[in-house]
Specification:
about 100 residues; alpha+beta; 4 strands; globular
Length: about 100
């Protein structure tokens, strides 16, 4: 399984607008082949930090996702609402028995 965290900071007062604008892309992404989960979280510590947490069946599924029209549109729509870039971390995981 592939896990992605994508953390970014909204300009002051823009966090809720970004969340609202992201709903279409979130809904479409959850229907994509290979998507296990896709959630946008708001920080409980401040009013500007957001993070996507994603789970994918494979790296190929993630790569296909990044090429979709709804993701390109979402990125373009929010670019002027961000304060800085997006920190993306991609992990490969496996289930273990504890």
């Amino acid at each position: 399984m592939i896990i992605v965290s994508a953390k970014f900071t909204a300009k002051p007062g823009m966090r809720d607008k970004i969340v609202e604008m992201s709903q279409k892309a979130i809904g479409l992404t959850r229907k994509e082949k290979g998507n296990i989960s896709y959630t946008l979280f708001k920080s409980s510590d401040d009013d500007t930090t957001l993070m996507y947490f994603e789970e994918w069946e494979s790296l190929d599924a993630l790569r296909a996702h990044l090429k979709t029209e709804h993701i390109r549109e979402a990125r373009e729509a929010r670019k002027d609402l961000l304060d800085g870039g997006v920190t993306v971390r991609v992990f490969e995981s496996k289930e273990v028995e504890l």
